[in-house]
């Protein structure tokens, strides 16, 4: 039976030149569905890789608001109380009080201005972030109007070269260094001295967040319990990865809400295109099917042959759609502000797992599109099929 099914599939494929137009429509329809699916969710996957994958699972973020760091305000008294509770729970904890606000920079290709994160940090901020290092220039000096910029920001936005200046808070801040952070979202930020930025912006000693890196999981649990037990603090404590994952979850929900209905309509169209193609194939080969049945080919091998042709055409469309999207998007540099108002430099990636999902969806479309024509082919009466001219 298996051999007969493959023989029928081969005969079907050999007759494709006679039905090339409808077959190409089928392939193109599936390619479009797969390309849209893989393209949309590649953007989400790239964004997740930028923020979530690069975040530190061991680092705790302490904020007054859990929604956005630049909306949180922690006073000096609360910051000191956080530090006291953290060191009591773990004497070896690394603390980094930080400010976060938005500044405008120019995109040279669009000649417009977008917002990026300006972060004020102390001496422990770099050591707290694994994989972060200066690659050019030097670190800013304490109390001076100096900045270091992420490599991704420097590549995407204008005026961020070493020696250039940014006009911030009625003063010129000189860029003195460039840093990398293993391609994570931190590379889209601009950093300066915490005290200098607090003074320039008149924010007193307030900070946006306090990052903590405990020495162990047990110490992290102890610190969280101490901070939550203090009713006067009223802070939100969460892992850095959870903070970013919460934002990505919202993006996923929005993407699914808008993308899935569109993809469903496109997939239904592709299924109907497959039905049309395969019904045409059965009609064009009715006499051949009758001859095959008369010399001993069973109904099941005939049906399987039609079904395999449909799946193979859809797989061809799926591979084509994946290939086009990979060539178009993979490695492309862009910038985006999905995460609130903050602009991130983003390197798009097309994950292999997502490409595989696209090909699987293509096979499923082919299966649905070929099922009814396959049943029809297998149930054709031999005598009537042989009478077809």
Walkthrough of the structure:
It is built from 12 helices and 12 strands. The chain is α+β, with helices and mostly antiparallel strands and 389 residues long. The longest helix has 45 residues. The two termini are 28 Å apart.
What are the main properties of this structure?
389 residues; alpha+beta; 10-stranded mixed β-sheet; two-stranded antiparallel sheet; elongated
Q: What portion of residues is helical? A: 40-55%
Order of helices and strands: HHEHEEHEEHEEEHEHEHHHEEHH
Strand content: 15-25%
What is the subunit organization of this protein?
single chain
State mean pLDDT (0 to 100 scale).
81
Sketch the major β-sheet: 10 strands, mixed
The structure class reads alpha+beta
Low-confidence stretches: none
Distance between the termini: 28 Å
The gyration radius over C-alpha positions equals 30 Å
Shape assignment: elongated
Query: With helices defined by DSSP (H or I, 4 residues minimum), what is the helix count?
Result: 12
Total beta-strand segments? 12
